[in-house]
């Protein structure tokens, strides 16, 4: 082999080694950044869960004082038992951050004070309900303390967002530098290899050269298509995550602002009703209609909040949330909805729970709109390989071409949720009869990755 050919081969190998080294360095930095991202997102998720817990306690107390129904105290008692464990989780996640430890200590102090005041208002309200007596002053003090707790949580969430953004910029800068160097070495390597190829393959005919060029172009096009597909998949999954976070934020804001105002209006109207003289019958009738409309508004607010972010899912688990949604579906549509769930699934990862719930929610919506079914059956079961959800109806079925339409956003959203969880999703016809089966499955092997 001629000396100049050997030199070209050595240079090519050296460039490939440099390129591989840069790739290894870049992958290591990416793994480290991913760990930081995961930690920050875990802190945000724990903060969100903690806020949901204390909000549930406050909602339970308000519901009990307004209606006198002890059923509203169930989420309150659940929150009383679990808020400290959520704080301990946050304390563990931020063990190396002194400022965060101080924030968590403040959260613990203010939350304990707020919970104590909520408990005191319940004990000082022996006859709650629309016509009873409620500790308004104590409730306002508890709400003020809860506002301080929410303020600390919102600030910590904002700081975590800022930290994530700073990490993102740093990773982007590193990727640009590493990518530029890798691109440079790749270009040089390709140039050297092309030169070597010309030296060794001068006798190749023009047609073979054209075929090789076409093959390279096709390969580049395939890589570009794969890259664009991966980017679109990541974008879709990001939009799903952002959508869930935005729905949760809107639900919290509606609960905190509109809930407080409606509670105050209800108390004032009841106060006026108790003090009206007997002779003003027309005024009393109008006031009664106003109270009835206010009650309907409170129920509408609850339905809107539950549609944005089901509180049952966060506080009472997936099985309870599914049962509640099935009952509401039957009430609205008149279609019987049978739910087959043999356990509570309280240990299920929250990301799994919201994915299964949203798929069931979207499927029931599609059934009500298009299926012309007479009954619906939902099966949620744990299998050896993971957890499986099936939604079965006896309607007219769905055509294959309808599933591939660009405007089938509901189907695309359900499929992307399962892809985000590392699971599988399919829509198929039953083996016998008419109807549709929507099936989602998440393998148990993804549990560790999702909880990281």
From TrEMBL:
EC id: 2.7.13.3
InterPro entries: CHASE3, HATPase_C_sf, HATPase_dom, Sensor_HK_TwoCompSys, Sig_transdc_His_kin_sub3_dim/P
GO cellular component: membrane
Residues annotated as transmembrane: 6-29, 175-196
SMART domains, per the entry: HATPase_c
Keyword vocabulary terms for this entry: ATP-binding, Coiled coil, Kinase, Membrane, Nucleotide-binding, Phosphoprotein, Transferase, Transmembrane, Transmembrane helix, Two-component regulatory system
Pfam families in the record: CHASE3, HATPase_c, HisKA_3
EC top class named in words: transferase
Histidine kinase/HSP90-like ATPase domain sequence ranges: 351-446
Coiled-coil features, chain-numbered ranges: 200-238
Record field: catalytic activity: ATP + protein L-histidine = ADP + protein N-phospho-L-histidine
Record GO terms (molecular function): ATP binding; phosphorelay sensor kinase activity; protein dimerization activity
Source domain of life: Bacteria
Keyword Metal-binding: no
Keyword Ribonucleoprotein: no
Protein name: histidine kinase
Native source organism of the sequence: Steroidobacter agaridevorans
Highest classification ranks of the organism: Bacteria, Pseudomonadati, Pseudomonadota, Gammaproteobacteria, Steroidobacterales
């Amino acid at each position: 082999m001629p000396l100049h050919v050997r030199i070209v081969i050595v240079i090519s190998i050296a460039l490939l080694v440099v390129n591989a080294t840069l790739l290894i360095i870049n992958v290591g930095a990416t793994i480290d950044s991913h760990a930081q991202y995961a930690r920050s997102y875990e802190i945000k998720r724990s903060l969100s869960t903690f806020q949901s817990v204390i909000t549930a306690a406050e909602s339970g107390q308000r519901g009990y004082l307004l209606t006198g129904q002890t059923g509203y105290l169930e989420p309150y008692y659940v929150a009383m038992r679990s808020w400290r464990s959520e704080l301990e989780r946050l304390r563990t996640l931020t063990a190396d951050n002194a400022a965060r430890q101080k924030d968590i200590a403040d959260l613990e102090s203010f939350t304990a004070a707020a919970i104590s005041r909520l408990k005191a208002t319940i004990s000082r309200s022996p006859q709650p309900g629309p016509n009873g007596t409620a500790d308004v002053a104590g409730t306002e003090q508890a709400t003020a303390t809860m506002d301080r707790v929410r303020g600390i949580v919102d600030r910590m969430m904002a700081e975590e967002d800022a930290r994530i953004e700073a990490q993102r910029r740093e990773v982007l800068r590193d990727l640009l530098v590493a990518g530029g160097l890798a691109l440079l070495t790749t270009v040089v390597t390709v140039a050297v290899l092309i030169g070597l190829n010309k030296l060794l393959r001068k006798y190749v005919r023009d047609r073979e050269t054209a075929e090789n060029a076409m093959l390279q172009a096709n390969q580049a096009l395939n890589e570009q298509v794969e890259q664009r597909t991966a980017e679109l998949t990541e974008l879709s999954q990001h939009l799903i995550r952002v959508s869930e976070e935005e729905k949760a934020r809107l639900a919290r804001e509606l609960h905190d602002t509109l809930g407080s105002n409606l509670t105050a209006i209800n108390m004032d109207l009841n106060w006026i009703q108790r003090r009206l003289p007997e002779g003003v019958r027309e005024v009393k009738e109008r006031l009664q209609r106003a109270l009835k409309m206010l009650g309907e508004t409170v129920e509408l607010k609850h339905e809107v909040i539950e549609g944005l972010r089901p509180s049952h899912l966060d506080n009472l688990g997936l099985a309870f949330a599914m049962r509640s949604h099935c009952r509401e579906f039957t009430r609205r549509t008149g279609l019987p909805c049978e739910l087959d769930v043999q356990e509570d699934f309280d240990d299920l990862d929250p990301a799994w729970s919201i994915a299964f719930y949203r798929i069931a929610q979207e499927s029931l919506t599609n059934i009500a709109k298009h299926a012309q079914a007479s009954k619906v059956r939902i099966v949620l079961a744990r299998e050896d390989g993971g957890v499986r959800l099936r939604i079965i109806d006896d309607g007219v079925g769905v055509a294959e071409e309808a599933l591939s339409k660009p405007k089938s956003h509901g189907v695309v959203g359900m499929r992307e949720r399962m892809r985000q969880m590392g699971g599988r999703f399919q829509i198929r016809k039953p083996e016998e009869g008419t109807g549709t089966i929507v099936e989602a499955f998440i393998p148990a092997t993804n549990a560790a990755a999702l909880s990281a």
